């Protein structure tokens, strides 16, 4: 059955928390559109996130990210996966609060590290000590992520499928009216 959301569901949290993979799975289960802000930025720029960081710098990327988020929030309510730094900007938090339910995918350092260590797609982790960088960002950001409407703690060992089912239940419990079936 098709569903219509009353407002957006916006996933926030650290790199590797599962925003992209769980957001896509959540949208599939709800039969609603899915948008990942990083993918939108990459498509618009015809460059990867790493290329944008390398050529234009992080400040440029953050401006693009804020523009893209504002644009997506004006579209039909959907599941939106943000990049890990998006929720750190006041302007993004205000825009997301006004138009959606924010959900923090809270995750411990070891789980995050296990998930991101194989990949070279995240420019912020291209440092001499990527695990140390991840730990520092986690400590800096967690208090701000905690401002999200809903906290969804990762369960180490959960499959993507199990986590998506649990996430859907948590969202329904937080806002039973969020998703309505439409003919
Ligand atoms: N329980 C789980 N929840 C979320 N992701 C998981 C889980 N178990 C394994 N993963 C893997 O962790 C990675 C999360 O990456 P991604 O969705 O890109 O995170 P983010 O967008 O938050 O940076 C994916 O490769 C996914 O398959
Ligand atoms: O945490 C961050 O600042 C970033 C997270 C990335 O997205 P994911 O959280 O989806 O990996 C991407 O937006 C960029 O590399 C910066
Ligand atoms: Mg992502």
TrEMBL record:
Q: What does the record give as cofactor?
A: Mg(2+)
Q: What is its main location?
A: cytoplasm
What subcellular locations does the record give?
Answer: Cytoplasm
Instruction: List positions binding ATP.
Output: 16-21, 122
Give the E.C. number(s).
Answer: 2.7.1.71
The processes (GO biological process) annotated in the record are:
amino acid biosynthetic process; aromatic amino acid family biosynthetic process; chorismate biosynthetic process
Q: Which residues bind Mg(2+)?
A: 20
GO terms, molecular function:
ATP binding; magnesium ion binding; shikimate kinase activity
GO (cellular component) term, any one: cytosol
Q: Which reaction does it catalyse?
A: shikimate + ATP = 3-phosphoshikimate + ADP + H(+)
Residues holding substrate? 38, 62, 84, 141
A Pfam family: SKI
SUPFAM superfamilies under this entry?
P-loop containing nucleoside triphosphate hydrolases
Cite the annotated pathway.
Metabolic intermediate biosynthesis; chorismate biosynthesis; chorismate from D-erythrose 4-phosphate and phosphoenolpyruvate: step 5/7
Which protein family is it in? Belongs to the shikimate kinase family.
The job of this chain, per UniProt, is described as: Catalyzes the specific phosphorylation of the 3-hydroxyl group of shikimic acid using ATP as a cosubstrate.
Q: What is this protein called?
A: Shikimate kinase
Organism of this sequence: Paracoccus subflavus
Upper taxonomic lineage: Bacteria, Pseudomonadati, Pseudomonadota, Alphaproteobacteria, Rhodobacterales
- Gene name per UniProt: aroK
């Amino acid at each position: 059955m098709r569903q219509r959301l009353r407002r957006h569901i916006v996933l926030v949290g650290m790199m590797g928390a599962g925003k992209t993979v769980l957001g896509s799975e959540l949208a599939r289960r709800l039969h609603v559109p899915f948008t990942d802000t990083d993918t939108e930025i990459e498509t618009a720029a015809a460059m990867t996130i790493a290329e944008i960081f390398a050529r234009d710098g992080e400040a440029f990327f953050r401006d693009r990210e804020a523009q893209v988020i504002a644009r997506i929030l004006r579209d039909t309510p959907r599941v939106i996966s943000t990049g890990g730094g998006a929720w750190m900007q006041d302007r993004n938090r205000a825009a997301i609060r006004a138009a959606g339910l924010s959900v923090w995918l809270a995750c411990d350092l070891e789980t995050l590290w296990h998930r991101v260590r194989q990949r070279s797609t995240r420019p912020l982790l291209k440092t001499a000590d990527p695990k140390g960088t991840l730990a520092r960002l986690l400590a800096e950001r967690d208090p701000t992520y905690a401002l999200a409407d809903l906290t969804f703690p990762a369960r180490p060992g959960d499959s993507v499928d199990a986590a998506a089912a649990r996430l859907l239940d948590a969202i329904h419990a937080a806002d039973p009216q969020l998703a309505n079936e439409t003919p």
